[in-house]
Amino acid sequence: MKLILLGAAGSGKGTMAKKIAADFNVPQISTGDMFREIAKKGGELGEKVKSLMESGALVPNEITFEVLKQRLKQKDCKKGFILDGFPRSLAQAEMLQKLTDIDAVISIELPFKQLEQRLVSRRICPKCGDIDNASYQGYTGNCRKCGTKLFQRDDDKPEAIKARLEVYKKDVTPLIDFYGEKVMTVSSAGSPDETYAPVKTFLSKLEAKA
Ligand code: ADP
Ligand code: ZN
What we know:
Layout: E1 2-7, H1 13-24, E2 28-30, H2 31-41, H3 43-54, H4 61-72, E3 81-84, H5 90-99, E4 104-109, H6 112-120, E5 122-124, E6 131-133, H7 158-179, E7 183-187, H8 192-209
Parallel strand pairs: 1-3, 1-4, 2-3, 4-7
Antiparallel strand pairs: 5-6
């Protein structure tokens, strides 16, 4: 199954991608994670990607597409994949279309106000990367896993959040139109399990049809 996962920051997209990847035995392909790896490796490309990411800019389409293309050629993608973070624009969707057909698009949706609320209270552990939320019961300000003092990402501050969510909405709306009937929309207002249940049913049916 070749899948695309859409969802704004704070929608729980990463969590959903992991559940789908595990249940349907497809690799989760996150362009964000790939670029962080490339940035870590350094070199000419690494340095370039690093400075773009740090400034909050997107990586140019040509580079993004080349990286993705190489990844999709690998053996583990033969039976399918779940794309997380790509496509991010209509231009990227059109590039992908030339490479392969997509079976379904899962779009995780949550009202703006709720996304904002989740993001402003999101806290990160600088040591182990665990993500916690200051609005959860039992929140102490220290990491649940390793005890380190948690911090707030700069782009999780209110002014930055608003800008990010607006960019997301502007970019993703044309994608929903582009994929038309292939799109399954799900609300993530409930718990991760509640969000995942209808997705699992939908994908199981899709898998049975194939
Ligand atoms: P975020 O949700 O904070 O943007 P991601 O992990 O999705 O985090 O991506 C991190 C960075 O990687 C982005 O800010 C961007 O620079 C780059 N990136 C990820 N996916 C794409 C893409 N599809 N096109 C261009 N750049 C991308
Ligand atoms: Zn920690």
